[in-house]
Amino acid sequence: MAPIISVKDLTKTYENGFEALKGINLDIEEGEVLALLGPNGAGKTTLISIICGIANKSGGSVTVGGHDITRDFRKARDMIGLVPQEMAVEVFEKVIDTVKFSRGLFGKGKDPAHIERVLRDLTLWDKKDNRIRELSGGMKRRVMIAKALSHEPRVLFLDEPTAGVDVELRKEMWDVMRELKKSGVTIILTTHYIEEAEAMADRVGVISKGELLVVEETDSLMKSLGKKVLEIELDKPVDDVPPALAQKGVTLSPTGKLVYTYDTAAEQTGITDILADLKKAGLRLADLSTKQSSLEDIFVDLVAQQKAEEDAA
């Protein structure tokens, strides 16, 4: 089945020569949740803006549901719902009126049943006659999602949907996203919260300085690029790492534990040799523990690797 969004060799260069996007290639499958991670200025919002028709591309092509965003702009845009990072609501409007108005902007006929279903799914039905200024921050964010869903899009872009909300509201928003996915909506999520990507995304894309560094299934990414840290607690603390262990990359933590980082995908971890060298050095083991690197560790490593390659070039 063809991807619902296909991005080919997409570039964006501003008049001052700044390259915001450098040849992005990305296919997004229908019904998946894709998280885009990247530091500020990485190009996440620029990429979304181009797909949604808010910004013009410099080169390449983008299709949504088979519709080219330039030649078939209206058909492509009709398939997209966008929840921008900024709160864009008329605070004196009633909830139900602003959602109905958004549907009308896309030329859709009145459908009270659909509007009610959207508001109920987002637990906004009881607030339908409230003015938006009377709502909490989390509820206002839900209104933004309701507006984006009012015209029945197949794709929903969420640009930092939980920015500025507390942990409890963030988890409520995760529940909303899960329900949207169950209904078949494709979700593209940009976020600074690594745990959000780990909790929600089927796949993760890491973008930095306009380049898409990697796009992979979340679990697979953590297995293929993740590392494990082995912490060795001795029965007596040491001041220095024995030379044989230091040569193998063992370090000493501030708490006095020996620390060894190894690649989970390697054929041999080297742990057997480490333990043998411990014995040779006359050190007695008290405890062992391992810790898997998180998605945040992988993200930081990828961005650091990109910087190192640029510095070496």
Automatic annotation (TrEMBL):
Coiled coil: none annotated. The keyword ATP-binding applies. The keyword Transport applies. Residues 5-234 form the ABC transporter domain. CDD domains: ABC_DR_subfamily_A (cd03230). Keywords: ATP-binding, Nucleotide-binding, Transport. GO terms for molecular function: ATP binding. Signal peptide: none annotated. It comes from the Bacteria. PANTHER family: ABC TRANSPORTER ATP-BINDING PROTEIN (PTHR42711:SF10). This is ABC transporter ATP-binding protein. It comes from Maritimibacter dapengensis. The lineage of its organism: Bacteria, Pseudomonadati, Pseudomonadota, Alphaproteobacteria, Rhodobacterales.
